[in-house]
Design goal:
8-stranded mixed sheet, 499 residues, lyase activity, globular, oxidoreductase, 8% strand, alpha/beta, Rossmann fold, 19 helices, N-(1-d-carboxylethyl)-l-norvaline Dehydrogenase, domain 2, binds ligand LNIPZVSO, 3-OHacyl-CoA_DH_NAD-bd
Length: 499
């Protein structure tokens, strides 16, 4: 039972199953049946059941996508994709190649560097072989071809660019793709946060450019964010949405803004976690609170595995990597500790999956606090959860206001399938309603008063001309020491799923 509870992370159904089996094995038949019925009644009537039902129906509803400009699932025809290419075979690119092969779609893996290509070939082959062995099938190795350079791209119907998160580099790749591919080839980007419209503008076919944002590990996580820009055509959006489904993912169509939906919210979650380090929490403590809430891994473990280098590049592009930034930033800059180059982390010792406290980090944080005159205080588990999760929820409401996500269900699907938000808590927007929007608002305002640098949203809406796609811009971080504005969270009229 202890093992089940540990793996279930707060979900009541797995523990109830064990109890029912135990009752069947140890009680007389009629008592065992009665106990099972009681357990079922408890489960059927629980908030967790409603949360899981919400997840189930939300995953179906996002397939009926629509955009503010009137593109819809039922008025847009996808194109067939017979063969695809992935350009850039880092960790994400390799995972995407694996997803194509596993779905039975021929795929060309493209690298500019021959050494990197060989590493990718080995990793992809090993992953496909391991996966096939587990499933008792033949590995689909014949569907994957690797090549250095863009010369073979005329044979593909769709390309996914997955190079480093660097706008200049991505623009160069898109320009080259534009001449290397057929004029009808869809050009997609796996960018985590960059402006899709700028990428589209470098090509001869901006209408055939969309974002296809995968989540790490790309061959495991079930989410695909499909990002439409102002010039993306219905055909391009429909093709990417349908392709996601073929790849075994749940596709969610979202608008174009920095970080789109998932990472735009993630930024506020990560930011609060970093502030908590300044204030006295340890990374292990923050992670433990989030893991007890039900995430498979806390924010620091997750960042270690998939986000340190990406986050660093994103902040570098935004000019947020100078001196005077919060410890999270400097920790990330520690030599050789940006994951995906090295399996080392800021929360854990070098290598391995197990999170172990890092003595270097502990003394770094002590030194950082003393340098900035910060007195470490005790941070409760409740504060960790409220600050990290409500900041994320708050941004979710701003995303709805901006029309970047079609509805709260879309955000919930993104968090459950992309970031491991526990399904028995329904997703962030569902959770906020379950907690009570007035309570969430009160806590956000409380933390705003207590910590003037706290959340996220400006008291005044930003000027409309600062936004993209004719929508108001969302607030940008201007450094970790910005004044804290008020909450964006208002009980929205359009929230139509009740917990
Ligand atoms: C102005 C706006 C700017 C925007 C701001 C930008 C913010 C900063 C950007 C951050 C980076 C974003 C990157 C990307 O765009 C978005 C993401 O992908 S975020 C990551 C989302 N993924 C997760 O949260 C996954 C969490 N993990 C899980 O859910 C589970 O671990 C699992 C993957 C379902 C597997 O679970 P299990 O089967 O129980 O097995 P394990 O836990 O042991 O893991 C198996 C295997 O997978 C590896 N792994 C797990 N998680 C990750 C991960 N997040 N990234 C990479 N790899 C991961 C794990 O190490 C194991 O590998 P192995 O040891 O077998 O080699």
């Amino acid at each position: 039972m202890a093992q089940v509870r540990r793996r279930a992370r707060g979900a009541i159904a797995p523990a109830a199953c064990v109890q029912a089996i135990r009752a069947a094995a140890t009680l007389p038949y009629s008592q065992g049946m009665r106990r099972e019925r009681e357990l079922m009644d408890t489960l059927f009537n629980s908030g967790q059941a409603r949360a899981m039902q919400h997840c189930f129906f939300s995953q179906r509803s996002v397939g009926r996508w629509s955009t503010p400009s009137g593109m819809r699932w039922d008025n847009s025809r996808p194109r067939p994709v017979h063969k695809a290419a992935v350009v850039g075979l880092g960790t994400m690119g390799r995972g995407i190649v694996v997803s194509f092969a596993r779905a039975g779609i021929p795929v060309l893996g493209v690298e500019m560097d021959a050494k990197q290509l060989e590493v990718a070939r080995k990793t992809v082959t090993a992953t496909l072989e391991r996966d096939a062995q587990r499933r008792g099938v033949e590995p689909p190795l014949g569907l994957v071809r690797f090549t250095v350079g863009l010369q073979d791209l005329r044979e593909v119907d769709l390309v996914i660019e997955a190079v480093f998160e660097d706008m200049a580099l991505k623009k160069r790749v898109f320009r080259e793709l534009s001449s290397a591919c057929r004029p009808d080839t869809l050009l997609c980007s796996n960018t985590s946060s960059l402006d899709l419209d700028q990428l589209a503008a470098t090509t001869s076919r901006p209408e055939l450019v969309v974002g296809m944002h995968f989540f790490a590990p790309a061959h495991v996580m079930k989410l695909l964010e499909v990002i439409y820009g102002p010039r993306s055509s219905p055909t391009a959006v429909a093709t990417a949405m349908q392709l996601g489904k073929r790849l075994g993912k749940v596709s969610v169509a979202v608008g174009n803004c920095p970080g789109f939906v998932g990472n735009r919210m993630l930024k506020h979650y990560v930011e609060q976690a970093n502030f908590l380090l300044e204030e006295g929490a340890s990374p292990e403590q923050v992670d433990q609170a989030l893991e007890e809430f039900g995430f498979p891994m806390g924010v620091f473990r997750m960042s270690d595995l998939s986000g340190l280098d990406v986050g660093w590049r994103v902040r570098k592009e935004s000019g947020l990597t100078g001196p005077g930034v919060a410890p999270g930033e400097q920790v990330r800059r520690r030599q050789g500790r940006r994951r995906q180059a090295v399996a080392g982390t800021c929360t854990t010792g070098l290598g391995g999956r197990e999170a172990k406290p890092d003595p270097w980090l502990r003394s770094f944080l002590e030194e950082y606090r003393s340098r900035h005159g910060l007195r470490a205080r005790t941070v409760s588990q409740q504060e960790v959860l409220e600050r990290c999760l409500y900041a994320l929820v708050n941004e979710g409401f701003r995303i709805l206001e901006d029309g970047i996500a079609a509805g709260p269900e879309d955000i919930d699907v993104i968090y459950v399938l992309g970031y491991g938000w526990p399904p028995h808590r329904g997703g962030p927007m569902f959770h906020a309603v379950a907690v009570g929007l007035p309570t969430v608002l009160e806590r956000l305002e409380h933390y705003h008063q207590a910590h003037p640098r706290h959340p996220t949203a400006p008291a005044q809406p930003p000027p409309a001309e600062a936004g993209r796609q004719g929508q108001p811009a969302h607030p940008e971080v201007e450094g970790d020491h910005q004044e804290c504005p008020q909450s964006a969270l208002r009980p929205p009229d359009h929230y139509h799923s009740s917990p």
